[in-house]
Design brief:
Largest sheet: 6 strands, mixed
Strand order of the largest sheet: 1-2-4-5-6-3
Structural class: alpha+beta
Mean pLDDT: 86
Distance between the termini: 21 Å
Number of helices: 7
Low-confidence stretches: 1-18, 45-49
Shape: globular
Number of strands: 6
Helix content: 25-40%
Strand content: 15-25%
Length: 189
């Protein structure tokens, strides 16, 4: 698979698994039990009791819009290359999804809807498509990690997989999200 081909799995916006295979609730719960302990979300539970971050299972989602995209982008997260993602604000509004929030946790699914990673959002900014920075493009970890590649890939993605009826515009609002991998740690991914 060429990561320079915008029709390959190297697209990025985070979307709900949607029409992807169904998530097994028992598998998700088992993953969460291990991930919350390994990520040390509630290190002092024995002293302070449970806290929300270590108790409430976060939402589970996959990157991209196809199982192939989900797997390719997850691999970039697991190897530490991908620490950012971008979504069209218009898609978030059209689907009724919540805006990402700093500190929020997410369970990342693979293309077969199996939980594979726990991430925490570290920053969220909304900017016009034409103002996404080279730094953000690099953080997304795709293709050659340049802004030119990011723009080409994401313009194609936003045209192809839009959940809204507004079309693509160079000044459309894009939600740029940065995150950190909590589990599995890169040495065990």
């Amino acid at each position: 698979m060429s990561t320079d081909d915008p029709t390959s799995a190297s697209t990025d916006p985070r979307v709900d698994a949607g029409a992807a295979p169904a998530v097994d609730p028992a598998e998700l719960a088992a993953f969460w039990e291990v991930a919350r302990v390994k990520a040390r979300l509630n290190r002092f539970e024995i002293y302070t009791g449970a806290n929300a971050a270590g108790s409430l299972m976060p939402p589970a989602w996959a990157f991209g819009s196809t199982p192939e995209q989900a797997d390719a982008l997850l691999a970039l997260v697991l190897d530490g290359t991908k620490t950012g993602t971008a979504s069209a604000l218009w898609d978030i509004e059209a689907t009724g999804e919540s805006m990402p929030e700093v500190g929020a946790l997410g369970i990342v699914l693979d293309g077969a809807a199996h939980p594979r990673a726990l991430v925490r959002t570290t920053s969220v900014t909304t900017v016009p498509f034409s103002e996404v920075t080279a730094e953000h493009a690099y953080a997304e970890g795709e293709s050659d990690r340049t802004l030119a590649s990011w723009r080409r890939i994401h313009a194609w993605y936003f045209r192809t997989f839009a959940a809204h009826e507004r079309g693509f515009e160079p000044d459309m609002p894009v939600v740029c999200e940065r995150f950190t991998l909590l589990y599995p740690s890169r040495c065990y991914a």
